[in-house]
Amino acid sequence: MLWFALTAVVLLQSGVLGDKDCNQSLLTNNAVTSSSQLSANFSASHAQMSSKSAWCPTQNFSSSEYLQIVFSSFKRITRIKIDGETNPGVNQTARRVTKYLLQVSRDGVQFQNFKQISQSDVVVQLNAFAVRLVPRSFNAFPCMRVEIYGCKAPEPETCKEKNGTCSQICKDNERYCFMGVCFFRCVTDWMCTKYITCKCHPGYKLLNDKRTCKDINECKRYNGGCDDFCENTVGSYICSCKSGYKLERDRHGCSDINECDINDGGCNQICENNQGSYKCKCWTGYKMSADNHTCIDIDECKVDNGGCSHTCINLAGGRRCACPVGFQVDALGKNCVDTNECYLANGGCETFCHNNNGSYTCSCRSGFELYDKLKCRDIDECARKTDDCDDQSTTCFNYQGSYECRCKKGFKYIPNNKRQCERMTCPPLVESQGTSVSPSECLVKNGRKVGDKCTFSCKAGYVLLDPSKNTMTCLDTTSWDMPIISCRPIRCPSLTPPANGYVYPPFCSTTGNTFGQSCYYRCNKGYSLKNGQNPKRDCTNSGAWDISTPATCAKVFIKPWINCPPDVVMSLDPKGNQADVTALLLKPKSNVGDVKMFPEKYRTSLVFPAGTTTLTYKATNKNGDVAQCTTDVIIEDKTPPRVVYCPNNIYESSPGIDKVIIWRDPEFADNVKVTSVTSDKKPNQKFGLGETLVLYVAKDAAGNTAQCSFSVTVKRLQCPVAEDPDNGKLTNCMNYGSTKYCRITCNTGKQTFMFTYGATCQLPEATWNEIPACVDATRINAGDSCPSGQIQQKSLTGYPNFIKYCVSCPRGYKYDSSAKDCIKCPVGYTSLAESSAQCTKCPAGKSTVKAGSKNCIDQCKPGTSSEDGFDLPLNPNGCSQCSMGYYSDIYGASQCKQCPDKLMTKFKGSNSKDDCGIAPTVTEFGPMNINVDENDRVEFVCKAVGPPTPSIKIVKARPTPDGFGGPVKIESIVEGGKQIGIRYIIQKASEHDQGLYSCVATNVFGKNTKFLNLQVNINLGSGQSGV
Fold this sequence. Notes:
Keywords: Disulfide bond, EGF-like domain, Endocytosis, Glycoprotein, Membrane, Receptor, Repeat, Signal, Sushi, Transmembrane, Transmembrane helix. The protein is an all-beta fold.
């Protein structure tokens, strides 16, 4: 069922979900049955965990075998535990089931799939009347022991009767649980647990019996959430508030009542609310009466005269202070202060009025004096000699209210000094170019006063304009007595222009130039100064030029330029180590004809090695000027090294913990050169037990790599697990030193085909001697003959069996009636049953190890090999894929064949010689460079080889537009029934056909390309032509 497959989960944790006591063993011998049994010792009665054997199905079991447990009543299953057989043979693995399908049933008749389980101990939770365990995978044989735990399934609880014994609310529930997660909707009864839950109305709580509801006293927990008082009621509670507070809308919180909102609380002036009450207050100047609501006036004058300095007058709610005539109340309203007479007409004063207590006085400004107590007049400081002017540099001048000190002639005012002046100065002088002035104070501000002198002199290379005038004097007008004196530079003589040239600036050829200046020789167009001469001439302080020799102009040839062809990138042929780029390397372009390429060896041959080669092109004119550029020729090696030889996987046994392993080193080859071969392992190195991967990596100069990998497996030397004979088993196996011995126990009525004392395996050979099958046998007396189809038992020991038996031919033999003997089936054949009269050929891909083998074994498939040609399980190492460069085209190959001519395969595991090959090579594409006239017929051929045979095509680098170019015909070149090339024919060449063409050969191993150029000469008429 789809829903079940999606939801059923096996619990893998320890412990049991649900009741702790539900962990009882549910298994009894009478409850266990099975679909079949191997024998009485391996019946369903031996399936309990305490059994000394186990349950095993019949020898020829099917996929529908099962072990079934039917319980006495409906059970809740909480845990299932399985194990294999108790006592396996010596050195044998216990036969056991490793995965089984769990099926469940409500009636023991119809079963449903629950889950495939691969754990030996699992926790589940389900209700069932019966279960089945169906083996799905196993070791050696599907044997198992089992234990199932659980308890009696509880009766379901419902609310239908007596309200489920709940005192108030009852609710029906159901659930099933997996992996510790419970789902509350059942989809099938045998997974479901039905139960009830009791709930209570609000205000009640469920008691520990999970059935009875009891009132909750909400007031005991956080006062029921009430701000003030909490009163419990049946199923609920009520909140109330203190006096002066009211209950809020949430019926829990209490808020203050504002009594002032109603008639101001009865207060006749101010009502002030507070938490839980209110208070009446009075305005300033009033006090509260005995009723605490009415305010009465306070007579402030009764206490300390109301704070007044003179008279206090009481008012309603306050008081006022008064003063005698001539005084007024101050800003505080308490003290009497004098009246300021100056506020009225300045008190009659002409200038300043000064108030005092009960009177006032007049005063004048500085420079004036008071008369008639109210008026002011000027004081003449100059006449009274009370001034402080400097008599040497100033003169005193009186004016209303003050006086002024004025500078005398030749003097000037001093900033911030009104009483003294200083001598005048002339402006600072400036030294012109080549001129010096002394003393140095002549050059600074205020450095020279009236009457001072300054002297001028000239520096080297300069002279005075008038040698008699070299001094300047400062006048009382603050100016100098003459214009500033300067020196002029000495002049060098004129220069003569060169032939085919001129001198610049032009005046240099007529008047020359002055000291510190320069003149330049310049050449006319097409000429330049000869041999790098200096065009500049500097005039020195001696009046001579620094270079006395004139310059010369010589004829100029144009500077060369050159444009190199673009870089060339080309891939090597898979079999080649150099490449010809003649068709790809274009010519450089230059404005001169002398162009040379370096290195010189590539001027005659454009064949380049792998890697990057830089070509330098140099263009030289007749003056010997050189321009150069470079082009890189990049020959890419994209072909990785190939594996010439790679060892197969190596399998060895060792009696110790390691072994020295020897192998032939892998071999690699490359079209250029193998530069390195690295490996983390080497021959003659010790390898520990287990499998170790050996990896060789070959690399060429281009970084291409190839790998050879194989494994080295070292196993502990021991006897392999022997296969039980037909109709019997190996028992009582023991070790005697380096020999292992097992007894051969045949089933009832069977005897060994050949008499032997047992099966032995001797180290270091680690192989079992021949183990004969158990076959039908007839006991005879000495001298008696065997019945038809049987032969007398032979011996493997060299000693006869004292008890005489006639035995049938086992599997792997056929009975030859004419020879009256059992004949071994040849290799590749076997007999399917005991007493067969003929041998049957093994199916394709299978064979037998030797004559007389009873089973056809899988052989290595094409593309693989092993030491004996067989695959698993006979060969524990299995088959290995053929290495690259090798193939196997048959079943049962013991080694792979190497590809001929050192060819390679594309991948490992090639199963045909046709898988061997190599990237193609274009052997011919030409003629290399074709030069034809317009309308000429053009033909070029491309040939290539593989193997495998490559596809070949010729492509124009820049395709000719449709409708242009001459008609093209392509023909195949066939040899020996195979295409070896194509012929590309242009019937009439046009200008649109010229350009670069490539021949591309492609197969599964890669591709190869070569190029050629086609040049078409265009007929321009009148004997002219163009390209």
